[in-house]
Amino acid sequence: MTPAALLADGLALRGRGAPADARAVAVDAFRAAAGDDSRTVEALLLLGRSSLDLCEYDEAARYFDRAVALAERPDAGTAAPLLVCALCDRASLARTLGRYLEAEAQFRHVLALIEPGTLDEAAAANELAVTFRFLGRFAEAEPLYRRALEIVETSLSPRHPSAATLLHNLAGLAYARGDYAAAEPLARRSVEIRQEALGDGNTHVAADAAQLAATLDALGRLDEAEAILRQALEVFEDTLGPNHYEVAFNLGQLGAVVFQRGRYEEAEGLYRRALLLLEILLGPQHPDLAAMLNNLGVLLAERALAAEAAAQYRRSIAILGPRVEPDHPTLVASRQNLAALASSARARSGERARARANVT
Prior knowledge:
Blueprint: H1 3-15, H2 19-32, H3 37-53, H4 57-72, H5 80-96, H6 100-113, H7 119-135, H8 138-155, H9 161-176, H10 180-198, H11 203-218, H12 222-240, H13 245-260, H14 264-282, H15 289-302, H16 306-320, H17 329-359
Helix pairs in contact: 1-2, 1-3, 2-3, 3-4, 3-5, 4-5, 5-6, 5-7, 6-7, 7-8, 8-9, 9-10, 9-11, 10-11, 11-12, 11-13, 12-13, 13-14, 14-15, 15-16, 15-17, 16-17
């Protein structure tokens, strides 16, 4: 097969949620592309993206660095859009690894290279907006998402999977702001568009469904939220394996739903399993751990395990404090929860002191 045909097959496999198969095909495409710089960069990008899907971050970094180096060579003969793709992918990896300010700088650089009104602008604007959301800079994220959605709907279609991605992200932004009523229709539309394009059993559809489930949980519709999350987890585990980031993240989401239903022991097991897996995948200081630590702290406080709850809140604060805005919702929640715990402890101490005074 030609490099172009192999790359088309690999992209299709990745789009169907089969990153391991996509990477295997990308290896063949890379070998077949020897001497063709543009196809080699495309193969390296597919290798990097598939490795990122598989949570193999060191491998992804090597592929993206090679792609950028080749695309930047003046004698390589690669088209400018390939360099933009390579730079975007490398910046996305930095964000995945929790290096948000580095990612922001890289995405801003990419946007300066891009012709306005193009799909390249939409892609880079979306990625920068995601970075702003992780930083807690929500007001900066929303216009970028909406600009990207306008470009995609005009250039492609309102029913294109790229539109589903942006609706998913707008739903996540509304959720992060606590506007759950606004998040729900965005999340539902994302699921509908993606399901229409890709069908059931796809990891991208499952990710959209999980976003909807989180919103339903926040709206108190726990039966629906739990059913959707369990189905999404089944897709992730069957397709990506039990030790994937999506499995870890959504175990935590399921833990939140189960906690709301008063099943504390089950919820604690889900939180701890999710945290352990995230630590293995991302390291013990990654900002993605913070929300899970805060939620575990709330559960432990509910079970009157104050000292252990405080330790989870402190760890969440220590991880997020240097990386995000002071009003980031998870950072604020962890600080408030720790303060409430301390206030409760002081009140109990005062009651014990008064009780002793009464006895004597």
